[in-house]
Amino acid sequence: MSPSSAAARAAVRTEARSPEAGSPEIRASAPAGRTLGTAGRARLRREARRVLFGNWTGNSTVPSLGLYPHQWSWDSAFVAIGLRHLSPARAQRELETLLSAQWDDGRVPHIVFNPRVPLDAYFPGPDFWRTSTAGAGAGAPRTTETSGIVQPPVHALAAWLVHESDPAASRRRGFLARVAPRLAAWHRYLAAHRDLDGGGLASIVHPWESGMDNSPCWDGPLARVTPAPPDSFQRADLTHGAAADRPTDLDYGRYVRLSADYRDHGYRDADAPHSFAVEDPSFNALFAASGYALAGICRELGDEAGAREHSDHAAALTEALVRRLWSAEAGQFLCRDLRAAPESGRAGGRLMDVRSVAGLLPLIAPGLPGEITGALLRTVTGEHFGLGTEVRLVPSYDLEGPAFDPYRYWRGPAWFNVNWLLERGLRSCGETERADGLRADVLDAAVTSGFAEYLDPYSGAGRGTRDFSWTAALALDLLGRPDSGAAGEAEVQRGEFT
């Protein structure tokens, strides 16, 4: 869709509220911003517990049973944040299972494959990545098959929140002492191997590494990538999702090409060509927020030198975010394409004039200058993202952008993890009323959409798969957060399971 006028955008909003043949949706039944009430909270708690219990494999949680049958990296971090309200021990196990597949170079892979799942259940699967052999030189595990790329580093933040849910039990079990060295190695990998331009930020080398796989931000960099031949791979995602909601075959061919090139260079960052190399503000904002969390973990363990190291690096990340990715004209952060011709008089690629929600997520990074925080608040509530005015939840892409599509993966729909992060960012900068309103809308949308993977931002209708793990987990977190009241916390805790 390419709305270029107010009338065209109105047509998009009307269409977004209409059912689409072949793409099932569940309508939101309650007005935006309404509290759930006692019965609604009980229903949410009961249903979220059912989702997380049903998607549990024994050591970790799959995002969904059909579409995503393995363990995903940032999904597990968000799942652990919700699981801490049901069972801190299970939340700890979620993170430790993921970190047990860490590579010797420190990277945490974006997928840990379950060997009991048939190879054709997901593509690209372990027979494509072949990390135990192709990644041997980079330190891939020999007995566990994983992917070779990464996802946003939200894990230290998750570990700290899990610890805080029951500090005494965490200390008794030695949870932080076990995960801290792995989290530190993960952060050092990103700082040492992924600062591709030397500007102080980590780069992503595949759209999947952003977590926002199909964002219009990647259209420009991907256009330079020759896609893999269509007959060289077989997509499995279309078996479980409507084609109108998923990436196109052309984009998928480019994803496959980038993955194969990385694999064929042994997953060694120094040797791989990285024809796609982007500095993403959301990835680095999460890196900064997790850096401060890792500093807190080190401090809890009595490691003051480690605490200073990670705190100083987090502050440097925030400074580099502002220096390299802030656009005063756009009123938000933008992605930097490191392979594009640089702006006149500047080195290090070019900022891409594409507004996505990734440029708002630095609200979660402590230490932003006040004028930048103010501009971000104006942008998130303005015509491009419509918080509190146009939409139920904040969309993944500019409502007025030429590539806006309320249905297609990351090109317009609203996502629960993104809105959870924005709620956290709003609250941290003192926007309590807006944060409370967004939290109410997230909770309402989660339960009325059947814990959908994502939503039509206008109607609140569920899109993608249902019974999605991070939707259930993050709704539980918002319901059980201490600042939501002692009663809410007690209600969640009564549902404990081990």
TrEMBL record:
Keywords: Glycosidase, Hydrolase. Gene3D superfamilies: 1.50.10.10. Residues 1-11 have a biased composition (Low complexity). It comes from the Bacteria. SUPFAM superfamilies: Six-hairpin glycosidases. It holds the Pfam family MGH1-like_GH. Residues 68-471 form the Mannosylglycerate hydrolase MGH1-like glycoside hydrolase domain. Residues 1-38 are annotated as: Disordered. PANTHER family: MANNOSYL-OLIGOSACCHARIDE GLUCOSIDASE. Belongs to the glycosyl hydrolase 63 family. This is Mannosylglycerate hydrolase MGH1-like glycoside hydrolase domain-containing protein. The lineage of its organism: Bacteria, Bacillati, Actinomycetota, Actinomycetes, Kitasatosporales.
